[in-house]
Amino acid sequence: QVQLVESGGGLVQPGGSLSLSCAASGFALRAYRMSWYRRAPGKERELVAAIATAGDSSNYVDSVKGRFTISRDNAKNMAYLQMDSLKPEDTAIYYCNAWNNPWDLPVDYWGQGTQVTVSS
User: Fold this and answer.
1) N or C: where does the chain have the smaller number of CB atoms within 10 Å of the terminal CB?
2) pLDDT at position 102, please?
3) Residues 66-76: tens digit of each pLDDT
4) 110: buried, middle or exposed (CB in 10 Å: 19+, 13-18, 0-12)?
5) How many Å apart are CA 120 and CA 117, to the nearest integer?
6) pLDDT tens-digit series, residues 74-102
7) 11 closest CA partner among 110, 112, 83
């Protein structure tokens, strides 16, 4: 079964940290660009961070730059999102995404999401 499963979400106080994991099964992550998205209540889905297949480059939405770090371990078939200095506005469901475009035929996989709540 082709699957992405997020874990690591939970409740954290403002200024705290949380580490999210994304485990892939049924396919090899090494061939896919990995991204983390989030959807806050009443808002559209937002791209948070993305990382290239080899992990040699990454990018972030402005609101999380300097606070979040995306990484991957292709040997373990996993991707991660380290979140530091969390703010209440970071509260959202976080999703991992794997994307590839072999032979100009896009392939796109999504996890079911993990809830992150930042509140005092």
Assistant:
1) N
2) 86
3) 999 999 999 99
4) middle
5) 10
6) 999 999 999 999 999 999 999 999 999 98
7) 83
State mean pLDDT over 34-55.
97
The single-letter code of the amino acid at 23 is: A
List 110's β-bridge partners, or say none.
97
Residue 52 CA to chain centroid, in angstroms? 13
The 3-state DSSP class for residue 93 equals: strand
Average pLDDT, the chain: 97
CA separation, residue 42 to residues 2, 63, 93 (Å): 29, 18, 11
- Phi first, then psi, for residue 111 (nearest 5°) are -85, 175
Q: Which of 76, 108, 93, 107 is closest to 6 using CA atoms?
A: 93
